[in-house]
Give the backbone structure.
Amino acid sequence: MTDRKSSVLIVDDDESILLLLRKWMQSDGYVVELADNGVAAVAKADARSHDVVLLDAMMPEMDGFQVAETLKAAEHTRTMPIIMVTALEDPKSKLRALQAGVQEFVSKPIDRNELSLRVRNVLMLKQYNNLLADQNRVLEQRVEERSRQVIESYRETITTLCRAAGYKDQETGNHIQRISYYTEDIAHALGMDHSFCETIHYASPMHDIGKIAIPDAILTKRGPLNPEEWEVMKTHAGLGAQLLGDGDSPYLCMGAEIALHHHERWDGSGYPAGLKGEAIPISARIMNICDQYDALRSKRPYKQALTHEEAVEILTVGNERTMPAHFDPDVLEAFRHSLERFRDIFESIRD
């Protein structure tokens, strides 16, 4: 989906990297603008709307984190996708970058192919995001009506987005339906209010919408992914949050929250930021166990389906890949109280 008119702003205080990245981006067909410090980057972004920003993390005077925060705080630059180019690998730095509004990371030394892939991904998601924003603007004009027709239209839009992502994955529309009921059931068991339970019902199916930007060769591969492929696959969390994150709808806001964090684990061993405990939003903690239950119960090209009893034992006792410590203890207890409901949901909405 490369667009030769797409504009890339490259920010780095190292002239050799600036020139190298300019050469690569121009050869990919993009219009390129350079900035050798954070202050200049903010000024150039303010003067011209860029389609993506390649941003160095460590710079004097105004570092990449401050640049990202400044761009995301301004109305006319907040939707610019930011890819941080950094040698920093620690979870704390990645979390700070995510909180500042960074969508993607590219590690130094920079891999040419990886950079091209991530730029294409964020540009494609920006196009989808623009379409979704247009839909939001239309709906917001009628929000005061709060009519049943408007609400249903919003939900249908969400369902269509989920189906679009599903066409690229082995997961079925039935999986999406089941996830809605699982998450709502756990929310009720936890004593969440009606608004939360209704919102998670419609938001949870959007958890893997970022997979729409993952290459088919990785997404549909039969057999295990190699380490490089797995790193690309993991980017679906941030990509999904980027796609959904600019909406004002409670469904889209929670959908973005779930998309970004539903692979985080209670003990801090998840991704993309390695969040731990209550730092993980409750919606994502609920989604985590529901998604894993359905994945265990479902047949995939690379695995057989497990029985209800087998899936429950893995989630509550553990195996070589999954441990109870991965889940919020309260959510795990709510799951234990909802076992028959989970069995009924799966059996009544089978693939």
User: Anything to note?
Assistant: The chain has a mean pLDDT of 86. The first strand starts at residue 7 and ends at 11. The chain has 16 helices and five strands.
